[in-house]
């Protein structure tokens, strides 16, 4: 179902924030989305921050792609453009926060936080509080969150991990006594059978867990029995976000020429920002999805390849055993086809991947290096990227923003034909070199957001078009 609103209509929606990671905001968000969908509403999901996993669940529940909104990687104008592009089509906007309400890129200010995003969007905030082992103290915690930023519209509270009727009564009594002006939407009971399974990079992806009808019904019952949905709708109408025409930030000079771009997408390669894919299409790319796990050949007539991140380490044996695909990727790269890879995609292009147990798996072999998996994460945080010299993503001096999170470590290639094209600045201001380029192939641990510099998408598409023209002349 697709809805179209007239200009200047108030957006109906909320931001679901948490006191911390793991407080239950993801499950609460998914439960609310399920109930709203069952009531016939068209719901658009958004995720604050750089995460890929939570948006996969929101996309599955809402039956439409969820979109990342990040106040560090993207400008306010770009965030609002993304939000409004999809908000005008739906009945309800559901924005899931990141970490705790006020957590972002630093401890000193709000950049990258859920609080910043809620103020940018003009949406009311519902605070999810893990009430386990708390009674009256829960009200003190909520009061601290409410008073921390007077500019934030904190509109209500949802308690999770509620132990039973007596616990619920105590929580409601505490709120009514100390914060009577702040509504309690309800209490979600503790249910171990509703917990979302996780692994080293976070929750399992939506396709791994499966959101069939019975699982959705189970989740909807949990929310409907615990929360006041009518109060939710009243709060959602407190939104200050105006649905109106927002000038597009896309420009004609971003057109890079019509090409077919092969995009790896399966259980091993599943981390892509929706806006990145849209910007590639806007630049002239026809996206053709394929599976390095199961396909025996690259798609016909592609002029470039994009390998996103994901979980190649969980599927290393299958990737190794698909000799035909590894050979096809290597042959395409050797023929000069532009290839761009991020994180897990980079691991696939290396010579070898070593798992936590020490087993070694041959990969494509475009770079003479091995990635080794560890039991603890090796890097985490926002990254500013400057191109040291011209490459697939633009001229020297081009600046983009992205995020890095991985459990593997890389033996840095030392061969003469491999060079580090990125000058990276992390959130602490430290600089280092990364982003390995070998002729037409660029691979890095950084997940770049092309919305931070859209001409980069056009540059990649243009490189693909130029190669296609050269290849056709030589054939």
Automatic annotation (TrEMBL):
It comes from the Bacteria. GO terms for biological process: cobalamin biosynthetic process. The record marks 447 as: Increases nucleophilicity of active site Cys. Keywords: ATP-binding, Cobalamin biosynthesis, Glutamine amidotransferase, Ligase, Magnesium, Nucleotide-binding. Its cofactor is Mg(2+). It catalyses: cob(II)yrinate + 2 L-glutamine + 2 ATP + 2 H2O = cob(II)yrinate a,c diamide + 2 L-glutamate + 2 ADP + 2 phosphate + 2 H(+). Gene3D superfamilies: 3.40.50.880, P-loop containing nucleotide triphosphate hydrolases. The active site is at residue 343. GO terms for molecular function: ATP binding; cobyrinic acid a,c-diamide synthase activity. The keyword Chaperone does not apply. Residues 261-453 form the CobB/CobQ-like glutamine amidotransferase domain. PROSITE patterns: GATASE_COBBQ (PS51274). Its EC number is 6.3.5.11. Coiled coil: none annotated. InterPro entries: CbiA/CobB_synth, Class_I_gatase-like, CobQ/CobB/MinD/ParA_Nub-bd_dom, GATase_3, P-loop_NTPase. Residues 14-201 form the CobQ/CobB/MinD/ParA nucleotide binding domain. Catalyzes the ATP-dependent amidation of the two carboxylate groups at positions a and c of cobyrinate, using either L-glutamine or ammonia as the nitrogen source. Belongs to the CobB/CbiA family. Comprises of two domains. The C-terminal domain contains the binding site for glutamine and catalyzes the hydrolysis of this substrate to glutamate and ammonia. The N-terminal domain is anticipated to bind ATP and cobyrinate and catalyzes the ultimate synthesis of the diamide product. The ammonia produced via the glutaminase domain is probably translocated to the adjacent domain via a molecular tunnel, where it reacts with an activated intermediate. The a and c carboxylates of cobyrinate are activated for nucleophilic attack via formation of a phosphorylated intermediate by ATP. CbiA catalyzes first the amidation of the c-carboxylate, and then that of the a-carboxylate. This is Cobyrinate a,c-diamide synthase. It comes from Desulfonatronum thiosulfatophilum. The lineage of its organism: Bacteria, Pseudomonadati, Thermodesulfobacteriota, Desulfovibrionia, Desulfovibrionales.
């Amino acid at each position: 179902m697709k809805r179209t609103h007239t200009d200047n209509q108030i957006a109906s929606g909320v931001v679901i924030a948490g006191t911390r990671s793991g407080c239950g905001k993801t499950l609460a968000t998914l439960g609310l989305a399920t109930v709203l969908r069952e009531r016939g509403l068209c719901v658009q999901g958004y995720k604050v921050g750089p995460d890929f996993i939570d948006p996969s669940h929101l996309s599955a529940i809402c039956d439409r792609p969820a979109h990342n909104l990040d106040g560090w990687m993207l400008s306010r104008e770009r965030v609002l453009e993304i939000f409004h592009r999809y908000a005008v089509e739906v009945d309800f906007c559901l924005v899931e926060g990141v970490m705790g309400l006020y957590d972002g890129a630093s401890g000193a200010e709000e950049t990258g936080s859920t609080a910043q995003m809620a103020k940018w969007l003009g949406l009311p905030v519902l605070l999810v509080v893990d009430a386990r082992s708390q009674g009256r103290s829960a009200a003190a915690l909520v009061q601290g969150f409410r008073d921390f930023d007077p500019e934030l519209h904190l509109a209500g509270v949802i308690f999770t991990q509620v132990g039973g009727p007596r616990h619920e009564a105590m929580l409601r009594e505490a709120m009514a006594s100390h914060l009577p002006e702040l509504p309690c939407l309800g209490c979600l009971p503790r249910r171990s059978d509703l917990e979302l399974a996780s692994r080293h990079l976070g929750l399992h992806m939506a396709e791994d867990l499966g959101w069939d009808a019975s699982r959705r019904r189970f989740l909807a019952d949990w929310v409907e029995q615990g929360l006041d949905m009518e109060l939710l709708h009243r709060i959602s109408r407190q939104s200050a976000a105006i649905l109106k025409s927002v000038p597009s930030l896309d420009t004609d000079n971003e057109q890079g020429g019509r090409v077919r771009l092969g995009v790896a997408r399966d259980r091993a390669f599943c981390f892509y920002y929706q806006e990145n894919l849209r910007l590639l299409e806007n630049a002239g790319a026809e996206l053709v999805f394929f599976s390095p796990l199961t396909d025996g050949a690259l798609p016909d007539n592609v002029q470039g390849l994009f390998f996103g991140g994901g979980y190649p380490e969980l599927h290393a044996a299958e990737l190794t055993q698909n000799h035909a695909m590894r050979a096809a990727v290597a042959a395409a790269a050797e023929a000069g086809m532009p290839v761009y890879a991020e994180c897990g995609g980079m691991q696939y292009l290396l010579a070898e991947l070593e798992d936590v147990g020490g087993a070694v798996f041959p990969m494509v072999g475009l770079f003479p290096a091995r990635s080794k998996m560890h039991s603890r994460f090796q890097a985490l945080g926002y990254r500013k990227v400057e191109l040291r010299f011209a490459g697939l993503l633009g001229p020297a001096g081009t600046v983009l923003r992205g995020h890095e999170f991985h459990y593997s470590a890389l033996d840095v290639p030392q061969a003469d034909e491999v060079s580090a094209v990125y000058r990276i600045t992390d959130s602490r201001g430290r600089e280092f070199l990364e982003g390995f380029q070998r002729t037409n192939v660029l691979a890095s641990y950084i997940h770049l957001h092309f919305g931070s510099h859209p001409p980069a998408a056009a540059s990649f598409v243009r490189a693909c078009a130029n190669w296609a023209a050269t290849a056709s002349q030589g054939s």
